[in-house]
Write a structure and sequence with these properties.
Blueprint (H helix, E strand, L loop, with lengths): L3 E4 L5 H10 L16 H6 L1 H5 L4 E6 L3 E8 L2 H19 L10 H10 L6 H6 L2 E7 L8 H12 L4 E7 L3 H9 L3 E5 L3 E7 L1
């Protein structure tokens, strides 16, 4: 049975945070890797649920089992996060909160020094997105439907995303969805497509 694709509803934040953690190890469950189970969601889900121009869609199949989050203007989103999202998290998660080099520590460092999109990427592909699906939605076309719905709703000439090189299944999915590699790093790729 296909999941119903619909807009995120207030009150579903924790479910999306849980999905983020359950897929946070290159698509696999990252629960055992993190001391703080909310930390990944605070970075990769929370701001998208609050940024005024964001689009948040969920796949609901006997409960929410996947999501896609996107913003049409990455630079505006980064500026908003600097003003509205990161300051409170920096207070809650000071540097040194977790053991140096631990997975939690690496995420806290991102909170204190968030990466910014390359200008050459956002010039052509100003929107960006994140998508995560629990196994029960994978391989049935629900990811394609979720991503297509988001791409149809983004008012931008192009979109980009980051993906870990270890997540070969996701890379294949993005390629099938028309994304191509625009930057390669040691452990990740930036992929993009025109809209």
């Amino acid at each position: 049975m296909s999941a119903k694709i619909r807009t995120y509803r207030p009150g579903e934040e924790q479910v999306l945070y849980d999905i983020c953690l359950l897929t946070g190890d290159s698509g696999a469950d990252a629960t055992a890797l993190y001391e703080d189970p909310r930390l990944l969601g605070e970075v990769y889900v929370g701001p998208y649920l609050r940024f005024p121009a964001a689009l948040a869609l969920v796949g609901d199949e006997s409960g929410v089992a996947g999501y896609v989050l996107g913003v049409p203007d990455t630079l505006a989103f980064e500026q908003w996060c600097d003003r509205e999202w990161w300051p409170d998290l920096r207070d809650r998660y000071p540097l040194g909160t977790f053991p140096d080099g631990s997975p939690d520590d690496r995420i806290v460092r991102l909170i204190h020094k968030p990466p910014t999109a390359s200008l050459d990427v956002v010039e052509r592909y100003p929107a960006h997105l994140h998508i995560d699906l629990l196994p029960r939605l994978q391989g049935q076309g629900d990811g394609r439907r979720l991503l297509t719905a988001l791409l149809d709703g983004l008012d931008a000439p192009g979109v980009h995303l980051g993906v870990g090189l270890a997540n070969q299944r996701a890379i294949g999915f993005y390629r099938r969805m028309g994304f191509t590699e625009v930057h390669a790093y040691t452990h990740s790729l930036i992929m993009a497509r025109r809209l």
